[in-house]
Amino acid sequence: MLEGNGFSFTIKRHSGTGANSGRKRSGRPKDTTESEAKFLRVNSLRDRWLTGQQLQACRSTQVLPSLRRQNKTERLAWAMKHHHWTTEDWKKVLWTDEKNENYGTRLHNFQ
């Protein structure tokens, strides 16, 4: 049984919007497409003992484009320039994990 406050809130919402469902909420956008969500749903229902890691393993790996000739040449030149560095020289380098991201495109596919 609904209490008075909850019941009146439901009536107000229905009279204002014409529906009992709530409004669309803001938040983090979904990381999966509809087809990917369907794939995960079907596979998790097919084998209920699959873990999240096993479901993720069903995804195919991302195929990156090959290096262009210019990139290969620049990398080789950089390596030749630094081949004589000692371990102490390399310890002074600040290493970062820079990666180009393609936002808005799906680069991986489900099998």
How would you explain this protein's 3D organization?
- With 111 residues, this protein is an all-alpha fold.
- The chain has a domain at 31-57.
- It contains 5 helices and no strands.
- The protein has helices at 4-17, 34-46, 52-57, 69-82, 87-91.
- The longest helix has 14 residues, at 4-17.
| Strand percent estimate | under 5%
Tally of individual helices: 5
Assembly level: single chain
Characterize the overall form: elongated
Mean pLDDT: 78
What is the helical fraction, as a range of percent?
40-55%
Rg, Å, rounded = 26 Å
Helix-strand makeup class: mainly alpha
The CA-CA distance between the termini, in Å, is 48 Å
The overall strand count is 0
Order of helices and strands: HHHHH
Q: What is the makeup of the main sheet? A: none
**Which consecutive residue ranges, at least 5 long each, have pLDDT under 50?**
none
GO molecular function: nucleic acid binding
Organism: Pundamilia nyererei
Biased composition (Basic and acidic residues): 28-37
Protein name: Transposase Tc1-like domain-containing protein
